[in-house]
């Protein structure tokens, strides 16, 4: 979850100028928890946003911790690009190129042969965070 938060933080910093710097991580975490989702087709998802962005872009409103003023940002591609690093880790870090499906397969292949079949039938990936 933390890697997704950092990736969303990076995306927001590149695009949004209204986020107080001292709150960029907190804002990214809130965006991840409230708006993120996994999409089945990355290209179709980009097209969906490009065709009718107003339908898909959400707004996040926060309070600046120092000035106590409200700030609002648009949340667009970050909604689906954050979770996409599970499947394309190189988006967030070029040093990591193995998607989660390959990691799971490798782990199962390293198990004793008699337990592999049940593991392949019902893989379950859990974490302490929602995404």
TrEMBL record:
Ranges that cross the membrane: none
Keywords for this protein: Actin-binding, ATP-binding, Nucleotide-binding
The UniProt record lists the keyword Nucleotide-binding: yes
InterPro entries membership: Actin, ATPase_NBD
Gene3D superfamilies the record matches: 3.30.420.40, Actin, Chain A, domain 4
GO MF annotation list: actin binding; ATP binding
Stated name of the protein: Uncharacterized protein
